[in-house]
Amino acid sequence: MRVIAIIGQKGGTGKTTTALGLAVSAERAGFRTAVLDLDPQTNAANWKDRREAEEPAVESIQPGRLRQTLKSAEGAGAEIVFIDTPGKSDTAAVEAARVADLVLIPVRPQIFDLETLSAVRDAVRLAGSPPTYVVLNGIHPSATRSPAEQREMIGNAFGLPVSPVHLSHRAAFAEAPASGQSPQEVEPHGKAAAELEALFAFVDKTATAKARPEAVPILQEARR
Q1: How many C-alpha atoms does 178 have within 13 Å on its Cβ side?
Q2: Which of 10, 68, 132, 212 is the most buried (most CB within 10 A)?
């Protein structure tokens, strides 16, 4: 089972939207998928309540129950688990990163998001430095600075690798959650769907290649 944590130190960066979009992509790719919602606002769980489709499974939990819940998810046959975390919660972010094979940090290309990256980087290091990528989110299709330029700037400034796939500012990302759906479901051939599918392909490949050996003992410890 692979575990992907989506973390950040600020609300409104797109953590929940990214987690749910990737979870739907994973289900569409044939993986048994679960989302663990650590955010007290329970946005992911509320999305599930509005959703007609059975999958992916979504469960709202406290950070202190994370390892036990991962154990249960693995026992139930989950192949990929996405952990959605709240903004400004060091404990939840660290705990999620500590059990993750891959950490994603969605950020919008604006100073209020970017200036939080130092704190997120420190939280990731505290968690044992799991493989981590910043995901540029909300890029305007007509932005003057290209995503490639922004990736290079972030990498140089914060010492964090940036995903080669970004998510753009598109209406489908904002509209789909209202009906418990994802952009791939409301606009299967739209650009938002294509971006999420490309991001999942990157996550799938990277989480498999960079799975940490220590992630297995963590789950084994939870079984005791």
Answers
A1: 6
A2: 132
Pairing of strands 102-107, 132-136: parallel
- The backbone torsions φ and ψ at residue 135, rounded to the nearest 5 degrees and listed phi first, read -115, 115
The number of beta carbons lying within 10 Å of the beta carbon of residue 9 is 24
> Where exactly are the structural domains of the chain?
2-202
Task: Estimate to the nearest angstrom the gap between the alpha carbon of 214 and the chain centroid.
Answer: 20
The span from the CA of 9 to the CA of 158, in Å, is 15
Question: Which pLDDT does position 178 carry in this prediction?
Answer: 96
Do residues 183 and 190 make contact, with C-beta atoms less than 8 angstroms apart? Answer: yes
Nearest C-alpha neighbor of 5 from the set 132, 162, 169:
132
Q: How confident is the model at residue 217 (pLDDT cuts 50, 70, 90)?
A: very low
Tokens of 214: 């220590």
Contacts of 59 (CB under 8 A, 6+ apart): 34, 35, 36, 37, 45, 69
Topology of the domain covering 2-202: Rossmann fold (3.40.50)
**What is the distance between the alpha carbons of residues 134 and 103, in angstroms, rounded to a whole number?**
8
Greatest CA separation found in the chain? 54
Query: For residue 219, what pLDDT is reported?
Result: 37
The whole-model pTM stands at: 0.90
Give the Å distances, CA to CA, from 15 to 18, 107, 108, 170.
Answer: 5, 9, 11, 16
Q: 129 CB contacts (<8 Å, ≥6 apart)? A: none
* DSSP, res 10: S
